[in-house]
Every structure is written in C-alpha cells, then in structure tokens.
Amino acid sequence: MTRWRPPLPLVAAWLVLLALLATTVTLAYRPLGSFNVVVALAIGTLKAATVAAVFMELRHRGPRTLLFAGAGLFWLGILLWLGTMDFLTRT
Amino acid sequence: MNEDNYLNAGYSLRSWFFTTDHKRIAILYFASLIVFFLIGGAAATAIRIELVTPQADLVSSDMYNRLFTMHGIIMVWFFLIPSIPNTLGNFIVPLMIGARDLAFPRLNLLSWYLFMLGGGVTLFAIFAGGVDTGWTFYTPFSTLYSNSYVAVAVTGVFIAGFSSILTGLNFIVTIHRLRAPGLTWYRLPLFLWSLYATSVILVLATPVLAMTLVLIVVERVLGVGIFDPKIGGDPLLFQHLFWFYSHPAVYIMILPGMGVINELISCFSRKQVFGYKFVAWASLAIAALGFLVWGHHMFVSGQSLLASLVFSFMSFMVAVPSAIKVFNWTATLHKGSIRFDAPMLYALGFIGLFTIGGLTGLFLACLAYDVHATDTYFVVAHFHYIMVGGMVTAYFGGLHYWWPKITGRLYSEYWARTAAVLIFFGFNLTFFPQFILGAEGMPRRYHVYPPEFQVWNVLSSGGAVILAIAYLMPLVYLGYSLFFGRRAPANPWDAPGLEWQTPSPPPEYNFDTQPVVTRPPYQYSPDFAAEPQNA
Amino acid sequence: MPDVEAFAPQYASIRHRDETAELGMWVFIATEVLLFGGLMLGYIVYRHAYPTAFAAAGRHTDIVIGTANTAILLTSSFLVACAVDAFAAETRKICITLLSGAILLGLIFIVLKGIEYSDEYREHLVPGINFSFEPANADGAQLFFVFYFVATSVHAVHMLVGIGLLAVLARLTYRSPDSRHRAALHSAALYWHFVDVVWIFLFALIYLPGRST
Fold it and tell me: A4 and A36 share a domain?
C-alpha cells in the first residue's frame, strides 16, 4: 500500500474550524448585547468560507465556478433583504 | 421515413419509457402536457359556463372554488411552466447548440418521471374532492380551515418542483458546456439565451416554493402553527415566501415564449433580430429583476408602505427589458421580407397581446391603481393576456415552426392559419371584456355578480367557445399530418440554425459529424437563401 | 492512468465530462442554498418579532450535543476532503477507510440528533405534540422550535442522503477507481461539504442565542 498523508492545507483547515467552533461557543456566553448574534454569524461565515475555499476547493477554481457558487448566496441575499424589509419597516 | 431517425430507433415501450434521448423525452412531455392542458381547459370551460349568468346556477360556491383552484394549479404547474422548456426546449436545445444530447440525459428522464408523479398526486387530490384555496394556497385558510385535499395537492406540486429544478440545471450546464466549436455566446440563437435565463429562475426560485410547501404541510398536517396568528405567526410570511417563487415563476412561463418569438420573427421577415445583444441581455435582466418585484402581489395585504413603494418601483423597472424586446422585434419586422405563415401569425399575435398584457401590468404596478384593481378581473385579464395571449400563442407558434423538424411532416398551412386567426379573435373576445369587468369592480374568484356585469361576462364566455374550438383545431390537423402529411425536408423554412442542418426528423445522435459554427445566427436574406451557421 | 474509458457521446473528452459534472453539482448546491434560505427568512422574521422568546428558547437547546455534532460534522468534512485527495488505484483502501470514517461520524451525528429529539420530547418542547413553555414567551418559543425541528429534520434528511452517497461511492471506489468514479466522489464530496456548511449556520442560529443571559 502506498504511503498517503493528509495534505497540510486540509489538516490546517480542520484545526482552524475546530478552533473557530470553540471560539464561537465561548463568545456566546459573553454578554455582548446585540453583538452576540453578529459575532456568531461572523464566525459562522468564516467557518463556511474555510470549508468552501479549502474542502470544496474553491480557491483552486476559476471565475465561472466562483460565479456559480456565489449566485446562490447572492440570491439568498435578495430573499433575506427584500423579505425582511416589509417586517422591519411596518409602523 | 426510410432513413434511421430517432422515431424509428426502437418501437418497444421500453425504448420510449426508459429512453435518455432528449428528443423522445420531449415527445413524452408533449403528450402529457396535452392531457394536462385539456383538464385545465375543462375547468375553465365549467367556469365560463357558470359565469354566463349572474346567479350561481351551474355549481355551488364550494364547487366553484375547487374549479378555479384546479384550473390555476394545473395550468400553472402542469402546463405553462413545463411547456416550452420541456417540449421545444428539450428537443431543440441540443440540436441548436450542435450537441448530441443534453449534459445529463438520465436526469432529463428523471425530470419527466417526477413531473408525472407530481401530476398524478395532484390529479388524485383534484378528483378525490379537490382543493378550494385558490392556486395561491393563502394561509391561514389553507393550513387551518380549508376542508379539502390541500396537503395532497401541495405534495404533488412539491414533487413536480424537483422536475423543474432538474430541467433548469440541465439547461444551464448544457448551454455552458456543450456548445459546438465556434459557437460563442454571442452566436447563440436568442431562444437559448431565453432558456438560459428561464433556467436561472427555475433553479433559484423553485426551492423556495419547495420549502414553503413543506411548511404548509407541517402546519396543516401536524397542526403546528407557523403562519398562525393565534400563536404569533404572520400569514404575510407565507405570502412573501410564496410570491418570492411565484412571481419569478411568471417569468419562467413567459421567457421561453419570448425566446421562440425571436426565432419566428427573424425567420419570417428574413432578417436577423435587431439589437441582438440588447435582446440577449434583456432576457437575463428580466430574470434578475423578476426576483425583485414579488411584493406587488401584496400591496393591500398589510405589507409596509416602504416595502410596497420599493416593489412598485422595481415592477416598473422590470417592464423595461420586456419593452426593449418588443421594440427590437418591431424593428426586426421593419423592412423585412415578411411572409404570413402560421408561425408568423402566432408571433405577430404574441407581440400585440403580450404588449397589452405588459402595459396593463404597469397599471397594476401603480400602487394607487392597484388598490382599486387588485383581486378584480382586471388582474385576471392582465395575466391571461400574458400567459395565454403571450405564452400559449408562442408555444403554438414554436410548435408549428419546429413541427417539420420534430415529426418529419408538413401540416396544412390553410388550417394552421385559420386556427391562428381564430385563436387571436377568440382570445380577445374572451379576455378583453374582463379588463372592463375588473375596472368596473367585479372581483375575481366569484361566480355570483351584479346583473349589470352580465353583458361582459356573456361576451367573454362566447369568446371562450371560439377559443376552445380554435385550440382543438391543431389537435386535428397536426394529428392528421402525423399520418398523412407530406414529408418534410431538412430545412423547410430555409433557416440557418444548426437544428435545420440535420434531417427531419433528426437521427438518434443528432449529427453525423460535429458541426463547427462559423457565423452569427439569423443570417437570412430576403430571397430565401440563408447562410447556415456551420460551414 | 491511461484514458481508455468510454464516455457519453455528448462529451468531447473525459475531462469535459468530469468538469461538467462538477458544474452541475454547484448548480444543485445553489438550489439547496435557496431551499434552506426560505427557512432562514422565517427564522429572521420571527426572531426579530420575538427576541426574548427566541433567546429563552435557545437556552433550552442542548449546547453539548450541538457543539459535539458540529465538531463531528467538521471532522467528517475533513475526512471526505482527504478521501478525495486519496482517490487512486494504489491508495483505494485508504480512501475507503476515510469514507467509512466520514460515514461513521455521520451516523453518530444522526444518533445524537435522535437522542436530542427524545430529550426535547421529554421536556415538552415539541410543537404540535406536547409543547409547553413559560407563558410569557410561549408563542415565540413555539415558533423557534418549529423552525428548529423543520430545519434540523430537513438537514438530517440531507445527511442521510449524503451518507448513502458516500457508502455507494466507497463501494464503487473499491470495485473500480476510475476517473468516472473520481468525478462522482468529487461531486458527492461537494454535496457533503455543503450539508456541513448548512449545519454551521444552523448551529449559530439554534444553539447560541440567549447564552449570555
């Protein structure tokens, strides 16, 4: 059987993800007021970006794949932004 | 047909129901869609008969609710949305881009089976007793109070939604990846730009509908309040989720029709489409902007004023790319060498009827007028002008244009032109009076109305009779042509597209050798000699 | 390895086919983003309307299982990414071991989720079945838990599909580690990572609210 070792970028990404998980749980217990949700989502975004860039190999992909990957997110943004606009602006 | 083609490449049931040939799958869809169109049309017939008199004399109120619901559900999800993409799209897209099939042929077949399964479940709901909520399934009526087969119908639509998603996925990937050598984006026929834009909407909007339908079932079947005001839920959340899909859905329905019109107008004016790039990008603009307007269905629902203003403004904006297309088609006609073949009659009808439908959409986009016109027959007439006057007309036009290619037969030009004219006349007689009814205040989804509205209703129902006959005519003469029509040449219209550079009907693998594209599309000339797109 | 495999006629080469397959999976992932997005909108709307109730309800979720499950999924993604890297005829056994590890972690996730659900049932947190909460926050909390159960069960269904895919691919890798199966594994891996990303956000929205009070 040939030797195979896990590539360093994958290991690093995995450790970073676990570290971010520990961070987000710890920070959730700190009273930051309305920033708690901001912090939680920001760290979540960092974790997601790590998974996307390293595990899903987006960092090696060209503009078309990135466009496709980003399109879903962009449209999600439309749904959430225009969708909440009504609820946030009712008098 | 002496030569081998996709129709005689196997006669067994297995070779049809387990096919992965995009052309055969298109035929499977085509056959199923005829059935759904007839069922939806039967509901419409019952509705128009009831509406001849101001009283409720044909059906009860409850039955009427079920009729217009069935009509809406079947026509929207089981006819209009799959129509051009899954019949003409499936058949023509690989031919038009010079490919041997779509990117994922087995997904294509799965699409059809999901469509049939969804259709079966929905039909079961309808014939077991029906649904009375309207095709829009508004909560809390649909989830808490309706005594009808809501959950079953919703499940059917949910399943069919995955058929839509897979179709869109297949087209997007195919158009990106399987274009023939030399077929750059700006050499694509505009039919493909339109289908691409349609597919973007299919894949991004339909999943939201899927989740919304899941939530309906959760609330209804499990008795768990999500939209229930009694526990603090907001029925408007349902409407936002529903219309986030259902408004772009109307662009799913119309964009393929617009795509077909490009092909017809250019062919029968013997001119390239004026402003090709404008039309191409307008398709994408319609798809993108179409996602930003859904709140115009909710102007009087209790939505915030700011949201209503934003949605109203965006609704005006989305009219712009559609208008650009209409102007470009008109400019294409200008100084063209026009021939009034049946497909051209349909295309011209489309331009007129779609324009009326689109302009009345602007009436409705206007907040102040919408307060008066919402939930009246004005809205009903508006969307029927677009969906029926526009989309169904385009479908028939495309069907006639590509019929020789698909079947290898020529239909009777006399009967085709007659039907086209009759459709145009019958359509206007059916739906124009409904604008007047709406402006006068007749609400939609009512079968009882004040006697002063009767004259318009009678005109409308009379028109519906003519329309029904006109829609049945193609069944007869197209069906006749299948068995007795003259054999069609490869290129009966002398058109330059790649689909015309292969026999009619095409061989199973479309092209003997890979076509190489060297020219832009639509290189027509007035004397009927067109330059084919490949060398 | 020599390129002697056949490929479908609409493709120009194996590479053409495999790159197209990956593109198709990205389109599919975009649809899934919007699928979960609908739930996100509902969550945001109701959290905005009932902030205290959502915080109170969030405190009743099991942070230990939630955190453990997140760590489990992140690790399973790591293993799947490694399996893609290890896909080759010579290292097929390593690849299969890695996939099996990911499958095992996925199953543990499901089991822990099941334990969590039964705990929630015992604590009367299941809307429509036996929901009861402190009256001041009952409505908002019920909406929170509707979101919780719908989102996590839809996610769990996706997990099960993913586990099935990985299992099938482990078997195919064992039988014939050719380029077609490499492309298939690659696509399945993308799907698996995406399901992980969904969980990352679900974790932040479900388990972390209200912890600081």
Answer: yes
Q: Choose the closest CB to A79 out of B244, B305, B311.
A: B244
Taking the domains of chain B in order of start, what are their residue ranges?
13-501
User: Could you give the number of structural domains in chain C?
Assistant: 1
| A27 plus A51 within the same structural domain | yes
What is the 3 state secondary structure string of B53-94? CCCCCCCCHHHHHHHHHHHHHHHHHHHHCCHHHHHHHHHHHH
C82 pLDDT above the threshold of 60 = yes
Same domain, A13 and A54: yes
Query: Roughly what angle, to the nearest 10 degrees, separates helices C63-85 and A8-28?
Result: 170
Interchain CB contact of C44 with A (< 8 Å): yes
CB C42 within 8 A of CB C145: no
**Pair A55, A14 in one domain:** yes
Q: Which residues contact B490 (CB under 8 A, 6 or more apart)?
A: B500, B501, B502, B503, B504
A60 contact B CB<8A: no
pLDDT digits 0-9 by tens, B118-176: 999 999 999 999 999 999 999 999 999 999 999 999 999 999 999 999 999 999 999 99
Half-sphere CA count of C117, side-chain side, radius 13 A:
16
Q: Which B-chain residues 450-489 have CB contacts (< 8 A) with chain A?
A: none
pLDDT of residue B222: 84
Report the sign of the C-alpha dihedral through residues C189, C195, C198, C199, in that order: negative
Token digits for B531? Answer: 């330059």
Residue C190 CA, chain-centre distance (Å), reads 11
The CA distances from residue B448 to B50, B54, B57, B444, in Å, are 9, 5, 9, 10
Q: Express each pLDDT in B466-512 by its tens digit.
A: 999 999 999 999 999 999 999 999 999 999 999 999 999 999 999 98
Say how many domains are in chain A.
2
Tell me what pLDDT residue A1 has: 53
Q: Is the same domain home to A71 and A45?
A: no
Kindly list the residues from chain A whose CB atom is less than 8 angstroms away from the CB atom of residue B307.
Answer: 82, 85-86, 89
Quick one: B324 exposed, middle or buried, by C-beta within 10 A (0-12, 13-18, 19+)?
A: middle
Same domain as A85, residue A48: no
Residue B51: partners with Cβ closer than 8 Å, 6 or more residues away: B447, B449, B457, B460, B461
CATH of the domain at C166: 1.20.120.80
Q: Cβ separation of B100 and C10 shorter than 8 Å? A: yes
Assembly ipTM = 0.94
- Note whether A70 and A46 are same-domain residues: no
Q: Dihedral of the CA atoms B17, B19, B24, B29 (nearest 10)?
A: 50
Closest chain B C-alpha to C93 CA, distance in angstroms: 30
CATH number for the domain formed by residue range(s) B13-501: 1.20.210.10
Both structure tokens of B478: 């197209």
| Domain span including residue A81 | 62-91
Residues C146, B236 contacting (CB under 8 angstroms)? no
Residues A7 and A27 in one domain: yes
Residue B403 has pLDDT above 80, yes or no: yes
Asked if the model's pLDDT at residue C4 lies above 70, the reply is: no
Q: Which of B80, B329, B231 is nearest to C135 (CA)?
A: B231
Average pLDDT over residues B444-454: 95
pTM of the predicted model over 0.90? yes
Residue-range definition of the domain harbouring residue C59: 14-206
Q: Give strand pairing partners of B487.
A: B409
Identify whether C182 is part of a domain: yes
Classify residue C66: in a domain, yes or no. yes
